[in-house]
Amino acid sequence: MTPGVLALGGNLGDRRATLQAAVDALPAVGVDPLRCSSTYETAPVGGPQGQPPFLNACLLVRTALAPEALLDALKGIEAAAGRDLGPDAVRNGPRPVDLDVLLLGADAYVSERLVIPHPRLLERRFVLIPLLELDFDLVLPGGERPADALVALSLDEDVRRAGPPLRLGAAGR
After folding, report:
1. Which of helix, strand or coil describes residue 72?
2. Does residue 102 carry a pLDDT above 90?
3. Sign of the dihedral through C-alpha 108, 109, 115, 118
4. How far apart are CA 71 and CA 30, in angstroms?
């Protein structure tokens, strides 16, 4: 089983319930949730103006899935939650759930569909804050430290703790 970190977010409907349903769906696709950060409310970054705020969290997981299979499993959960994944979907637009692979194992991975570590991981406060809650001393495969990246970012991106971690199933701790 390979450890990994997922980013969860959503800004439509009952955000917490939708994120919880995504976490609850992970074991059925071969992903064991181990630990979740607190949830954070954040203003949208990019995308159309006027969309509602996001609820975000990071989730420590383990899986035997290869990177592409993990991506497919996450896209299936997003689709089941009502996310439009079609070619006409608005990039960075409102969505009930967004699941991203931030890290998987100790190595980097690059394909046409997926880059690990996530290419914008070090640019987003709404990812770094919950990620560092899970592991403040984390070092990425390229040697970068998310804690150092967070210090270097502008304070313009509003990230506020919104609630406790999402509930984990029997595999979680």
Report:
1. helix
2. yes
3. negative
4. 12
Q: Which two tokens stand for residue 57?
A: 């969290």
b/e map of 24-60 (b: 16 or more CB within 10 Å)?
A: ebbbeeebbbbbbbbbbbbebeeeeeebeebbbbbbb
Reduced DSSP (H G I as helix, E B as strand, rest coil) percent helix, strand, coil of the chain, to 5? 30, 25, 45
Q: What is the pTM of this model?
A: 0.93
State which amino acid sits at residue 15: R
pLDDT category at 173 given cuts 50, 70, 90 is very low
Instruction: Work out the mean pLDDT of the chain and round it to a whole number.
Output: 92
What pLDDT was estimated at residue 158? Answer: 87
Q: Is residue 85 pLDDT above 90, yes or no? A: no
Catalytic positions, please?
83, 95, 98, 100
Running DSSP on this structure, what letter comes out for residue 71? H
The structure tokens listed for 37 are: 């950060």
Residue given tokens 């984390």 in the structure block? 138
Inter-residue contact 2 to 137 (CB < 8 Å): no
